[in-house]
UniProtKB/TrEMBL annotation:
It comes from Flavobacterium urumqiense. Transmembrane segments: none annotated. Residues 1-60 form the Integrase catalytic domain. One of its GO terms (biological process) is DNA integration. Signal peptide: none annotated. Pfam families: rve_3 (PF13683). This is Integrase core domain-containing protein.
Length: 75
């Protein structure tokens, strides 16, 4: 573990939030709290989990990676 406030102790979560803020929130016009919740839900469930290519998965999306090994989606 690193010191308090140092991002190296949870790099995966820090990277996810940085990507989400960059791709979704920054540059987006001001909208209501409920609209932002819906936008974040759509971003995570439809874009990030289904379509976005991840460098850790050899630049494949989650479905392509799972189909490569014949894994079935558990969701």
């Amino acid at each position: 573990m690193s010191r308090n406030g140092n991002c190296w102790d949870n790099v995966v979560a820090e990277r996810f939030f940085k990507s989400s803020k960059t791709e979704l929130i920054y540059g987006n016009k001001l909208i209501s709290k409920d609209q932002m919740k819906l936008e974040i839900f759509i971003h995570i469930e439809i874009w990030y989990n289904k379509k976005r290519r991840h460098s850790a998965l050899n630049y494949k999306n989650v479905d392509e990676f799972n189909n490569q090994f014949n894994y079935k989606n558990v969701a």
